[in-house]
Amino acid sequence: MSDDKMEVVVGCYEQMLLGFRLVEGEEECNLEPTFTDNSHTGCVKAVASGGHVLASGSTDETIHLYNMESRTELGTLLQHDGSITCLQFYDSSHMLSGAEDGTMCVWQTGTWECLKSMRGHKGGISSLSVHPSGKLALSVGKDKTIRTWNLVTGRPAYTTNIKQVADLIQWSPKGDMYAVVTGNKISVYRLETAGLKCTLDAGKRVLTVAYLTNTVLAVAGEDKNIQILNVETGTCTCDFSAHDNRIKSLLCVRDHRSDAGETDLLMVSISSDGYIKVWALKTDQLEKTPTLVAKHNTTARLTALAIVTTQSTAPERSTTKAVPEKRKLAKQKEAEQKTEKRKNVKEKKGGKKKLKVKN
């Protein structure tokens, strides 16, 4: 039995963030609203979580930061000069961001100093993925290249030209393979040889992929179905109808519910139909159609998804850490007011803003 609590956070075209907690009932689970936030002035394109911190990126060219324990907004990152397209945390200590301006930034959490602002793509960055070791990152963009970044030195390592514009890139959980999505095809490459392991055709434009195991992917996009694809056999083991419209994002986490076993997973899907759905599945029975355990109609046009997992009792380190963060944010705000170039962290007027908590 786990003490973890799972909260689903979604972004939408309507410029809002919406939070929902998965609550176990006597007969079924429910997604209960927890908060709303309308700090962005553009469509929310990316959401990510790392520890107790949530980050959201928007077409308004800003990244907003939130402390999910205290339910307050920490501040705003203003380094990019284009729409924020992708965000990813690594080990709760660093965050990477990519944008339409072609730059990828590495941030140190806590101080929120921009350690590196790296440029390589000759156009916007569509997707990025950090290796499980934290030493490498991959990115794809509109310039038909895959860029490999050395995060130890903060420099580009090498560039791979591809024939089409790639939409997504993602490392496998073990980091020995990575998947590249171009249109309706998923190409899986081996890290050791940089050779192609297999190419899978989803039969539709793919908008999202999520690793269920190191060799099994959940894939969805421009139709109503979710497919479970095995990269070892190159086959589709399961294909089921999940939504009434295109599926925008998938994420998978360990099942935290009281009756969950070691092989149990929860997969969250969001769609343009406004629904958030939570599915239960087992890693040793991936040929079976997942079971729908909860759903909620947000009535919004959903675009981005993150899962925040918190313990029922917050660790003491998280509450004490918020104090120097606030002091650092205030100092950076004063510095930013003296320069025309907006950089790093800027705290909102009036100090930290509380999220609108749903009763």
Descriptive report:
- This protein is mostly beta strands.
- Helix content is 6%, strand content 54%.
- The chain contains one helix and 30 strands.
- The strands form seven sheets. The chain has a five-stranded antiparallel sheet, with no helix packed on it.
- Strand 9 and strand 10 form a beta hairpin.
- The longest helix is centred in the C-terminal third of the chain and has 21 residues, at 316-336.
- It is globular.
- The two termini are 27 Å apart.
- The model is unreliable at 312-343 (pLDDT under 50).
Instruction: Figure out the total of helices.
Output: 1
Strand order across the biggest sheet?
Answer: 28-1-2-3-30
Structural class assignment: mainly beta
First CA to last CA: what distance? 27 Å
Radius of gyration: 20 Å
Low-pLDDT regions: 312-343
Whole-number mean pLDDT: 87
Oligomerization status of the protein chains: single chain
| Shape assignment | globular
How many β-strands, per DSSP?
30
Query: Percent range for helical residues?
Result: under 10%
Q: Beta-strand level of the residues, as a percent range?
A: over 45%
* Main beta-sheet strand count, sense and barrel state: 5 strands, antiparallel
